[in-house]
Amino acid sequence: MTTNGRRWIPALCCALVMWMLAPAMAQNAARTYPSQQYYVGLAMLREGALPDAVELFEEAVRAGRTDPTGKWIDSIPAYAMLGECNYQLGNLPAAHQNFDAAIGLMLRHGRWLESVQWPPSLAGVKANIGVGSWAVSGRRSTLANIPDTMQIMTGSQDVLGQIQRGGTLQTAQLMKVDVAEIVRALAWAVYRRSQVLGGLSIDDPLNEELLTSLARTKLPPGPGQAWVDLVRAIALIADNQPQQAVGLVDRAVMLPGNYDHPLTSIGLLVGANLLMISGQPQATTQYIEAAISGATYGQYEIAAEAMRIAVGPLASQGSGVLTARANAAALQLGRKSRLMAATCYLVGAESAANSGQPQDAQRSLADARSILARRNTVLPRLEAYANYCVALTAFQTGDTKAAAVALDKVMAFALNGATPTCPHTYQLAIVQSAMSGGGIGGRTADDLLTALAQGPSLGQWYLDPVNALSATRPNQAVDQLRFSGLIQRQKFEEALQVADEVLGNRFRSQLPLSGRMLDVRWLVAGPEDQLSTAALAVRAKPPAMLKSIAGVASVMADAQTALAALPFEAADPPQAAQLQANWTDLATAADRVETLVGQAAIQRMNVPRVFPPAIGDKSMWPQLSAGNAVLTFCPAGADLIGLLYSNGKVTAWQVERPASVLPQISQWIKALGVIRRRGGAAQLSQPDQWQPIAQALRRQLFPGLDTKTLASIQRMVIVPYGPLWYLPFELLPVGEAAGSTLGDVISISYAPTPGLALHPPALSTNKISTGAIVGRFLAPADVELNDQLSQDLVDAVPETQRLPGQAKLPGALLAPRFGRVWVAAPVKPQAKAPLLVSPFAYDQGKPGGDLSSWLRFPWGGPGELLLPGFQSNISTAGGAPDGDDLFLMACGLQAAGAKQVLLSRWAVGGRSTAALLREYLGEVEFSSPLDSWKRSMVLLRNQELDPSGEPLLNDGDAKAGPASGANPLFWSGYLFIGADIERLP
Questions:
Q1: Sign of torsion over alpha carbons 850, 855, 859, 864
Q2: Rounded Cα gap, residues 858 and 743, in angstroms
């Protein structure tokens, strides 16, 4: 084509431009954006019909406008509210995906706000929605007259330039858009996404990109710039920059002239969160103002969120100031939004329960339930909150069973294994899946897991108690991932700290609310020398609920003091009546205080972890004297790691073939003669039968420790793991060959966790009362001999009391009265429920007899408890020998206040056990418990024993003549639990 032949092109282009611009010159009144499906979906969301809302929002996305780059800005609110629906349904992966889609569209069309034709004036009267008398605001503002839709220019008027540059031709159009709703939905998506991701939002690439884009957006003064500032502020808070966000939020809440606008409610909510983070008391007032603003604009999902959080900071104060207002809001808004009404009734219930008004709480709960039960109402997250309120109220009325059922329902939602429902569990899932991919937002997965494993913060409790409860549950897989990572990087000191958490969480996972109830008891009644700095701070300035518990506990203490002044056995009927009255007072006070403990444990307040005591970082560790050591074993997935803390440093190594440890220990136990041999063969073994196994186990367990290191240790506390609880470490050789054993050269004791090893509880120096429990144990086949041996032990300590005595009370009530108790009776744990074992044996299966009852008030077990009749699962043909029977018994007794505990891996009985106990009881008045026990062991090992007086032996042993007490069958099965360690001043 020649040049002259192209002269017609400019004329043609001009005609084409005029033709394309003609429709844009007139306002297109036929359609507005977003579509009507979106607004109907929004109404369904606010009614609580979430499945219906999801369908409508998905339809709105499909029907949304598209341009050559894809979906347009009218799909932003549909994606945002799809995210909100999935959040309320408990599908956080889908919620996250939809929030990302909404933000992604904002980034794709980053300059669209600059094309809006903003209103020239905000003056005028904007009619609000009647929300009732509950919504009396303290703010002086009026509603800005912001139109429901504004015009926005899309495409380009430079058609000729587009043609010359090539690419897709986008003609200019004027569109009618609900700008306020699009930005409001975007702000909500950014807000809710930050909750879903928590700390993972920091340095998050999408959030960072949004911050950059918003910082470049410059609009004329007025609503547009205020809205951009608010979204930016929310993104800054998500990025952990709250100080930079404060000024933006303050400017965005109210426009010049004291005008409120459609995003005021979100601004007030975000501002209230900032006040709450900084501990400002006016946070609650601002949450209420956010709810009023949200209701005024019909934004009931925002109003409900603000009301639900508003009650949080008041909970620990025992304040019920929200009860009447929340119930009034629910009543007056019931026809406008089921979501709002049900939420407000539940807020009224929680507020009433916190202030000790259970009947008011039950009425509000009934009203909420009637709404949640209506046809098409599907609100799983709100149902979980309702069950939380049911539990609070049930504790108030003393119905602990109903509270437990309600909490089980809460946790069933919070810990749904199929799809993460709570932010905490979702964040854990994200980090775990990213472990192989390096860091997240510039931080290592290990750092993130550490932050997530610390339990719920006070802010998490305030924002969402259901999510906070999910964060109380230890995650064994996460704990071991953290531990494995530190071992791989050879950060052994930090690894020991995490090992302490791994083992402590193993115990806490067996307790109600993952140990939070136990922490409350320790905060009130635990000895100060065993409380952390954080726990002491809470005790110094206790919240209202802890004060209430302390008040009832003082009544219980008075009853215990009165009992201590009376003889254990009544001398006459009047004294018996007085004893019975005091015991009844004690039991009644204990039941009452336990309902308060349950309420405190789930209340929105800070309850630091107290038991087991955490060792913390190395700066908190005691310096051990020369020759003292703590040996800990901890799992790292399929591996087992040994760690030795001695001489100010930690050494670590990997146990060889950990899967073969249990079979070898079982073989060793059989070789020692613990399991009954067939055919009447002698039970007592010779060294050549068990020493080879001991040598193999020594090499397997200590490949990283040489003989010189072990030989330099005089006192060692061993923290076993799993099957190692069944292993008599005392019989392992010091070197790889047969010779001196660890028990010959080292004073060995045991502890359930490194924290209990390094921070052992101090024993009382006062004379303590002794209790005795006698069963068919010392001589089970000879009643007369059994009674004689038992009475000799009772007579060994003057004024020893036989339990249970005349009152026949359960161990949970009797245990705090005695400083030392020995139990010459079989104690058999349940393989599947180790905490249901009865330490006192006589009350097995009865209320108040099991170990879990010992953890309740009246808190405080005997300082010393001797259980030589404990029969672990390794000593029986059945059971599940995983070590939990011994571990949970040891940890449980120390959690109940016991300082020194004697357990047996296998029950021996007979004259040998009677001799050990008699020597110990006579010696312990003048020496430490462990030293007294060691002396008793030495004396036994130098005795000859009559096989006929030993229940473990049979006719084959009797034919062989007298037995030596040095045989390990008689003494190596005992574990003395209670750290015996010397620390530098």
A1: positive
A2: 38
- The DSSP letter of residue 30 is S
Q: Where do we find the tokens 């430490």?
A: 928
Residues contacting residue 47 through CB under 8 Å, at least 6 positions apart: 337, 338, 339, 376, 377
Residues 30, 175 contacting (CB under 8 angstroms): no
Strand order across the beta sheet in which 649-654 lies: 649-654, 639-646, 628-636, 715-719, 747-750, 974-977, 900-904, 864-867, 820-824, 770-774, 801-802
Residues 6+ apart with CB under 8 A from 46: 298, 300, 301, 336, 337, 338, 339, 340
Query: Is 80 exceeded by the pLDDT of residue 835?
Result: yes
Q: If you count them, how many residues does the chain have?
A: 985
Tokens representing 486 are 């530190």
| Cα–Cα dist 103/187, whole Å | 9
DSSP for 854-904 reads HTSSS----SEEEETTB--GGGSSSS--SSHHHHHHHHHHHHTT-SEEEEE
Cα angle: 975, vertex 528, 978; to 5 degrees: 5
User: Residue 833 — very low, low, confident or very high, per pLDDT cuts 50/70/90?
Assistant: confident
pLDDT of residue 565: 85
Buried b (16+ CB within 10 A) or exposed e, 966-977: ebbbbbbbbbbb
Phi, psi of 864, rounded to the nearest 5 degrees: -125, 130
Strand, helix or coil for residue 381: helix
Query: Can you give the pTM of this predicted structure?
Result: 0.89
Phi, psi of 174 (to 5 degrees): -100, 125
Q: What is the C-alpha separation between 253 and 246, in angstroms, rounded? A: 11
Percent of the chain as helix, strand, coil, to the nearest 5: 55, 10, 35
| Helix ranges (DSSP H) in 746-883 | 754-758, 783-796, 811-814, 851-854
DSSP 624: B
Q: Quote the mean pLDDT of the chain.
A: 88
Percent of the chain with pLDDT over 70: 92
**Which pair of structure tokens corresponds to residue 78?**
């549909």
Q: Which residue has the higher pLDDT, 30 or 723?
A: 723
Position 254, amino acid: M
Q: Looking at the DSSP assignment, which residues form a beta bridge with residue 71?
A: 66
- What's the pLDDT score for residue 161? 54
**How is residue 254 written in tokens?**
């109210």
Structure tokens at 394: 């049930």
- The stretch 679-691 carries a mean pLDDT of 85
Cis omega before residue 826 (within 30°)? no
In which band, very low, low, confident or very high, does the pLDDT at 494 lie, cut at 50, 70 and 90? Answer: very high
Mean pLDDT score, 195-222? 93
Instruction: State phi, psi for 320 to the nearest 5 degrees.
Output: -115, 30
Q: What is the pLDDT of residues 252-283, one digit of tens each?
A: 999 998 999 999 999 999 999 999 888 888 88
Q: Is 979 helix (H, G, I), strand (E, B) or coil?
A: coil
Tokens of 481: 């991932």
Spatial separation of the C-alpha atoms in residues 384 and 605, rounded to whole Å? 19
Q: Are 519 and 609 in contact (CB under 8 A)?
A: yes
Amino acid identity for residue 824 in this structure: A
Which parts of 415-491 fold into alpha helices (H)?
423-433, 445-452, 458-463, 465-472, 476-488
- Token pair 């790889």 is found at 736
Q: State residue 14's pLDDT score.
A: 38
Tens digit of each residue's pLDDT (9 = 90 or more) over 85-107: 999 999 999 999 999 999 999 99
Q: Is beta strand 639-646 parallel, antiparallel or unpaired with respect to 628-636? A: antiparallel
Rounded distance between C-alpha atoms, residue 240 and residue 451, angstroms: 14
CA–CA distances in Å: residue 358 to residues 348, 363, 386, 394: 11, 9, 15, 8
Amino acid (one-letter) located at 68? P
Closest CA to 662 of 828, 874, 920, 465: 874
CA–CA separation, 652 and 613 (whole Å): 22
| Among the ranges given (252-261, 281-290, 729-738), the one the predictor scored with the smallest mean pLDDT | 729-738
Residue 247's closest CA among 233, 237, 235?
Answer: 233
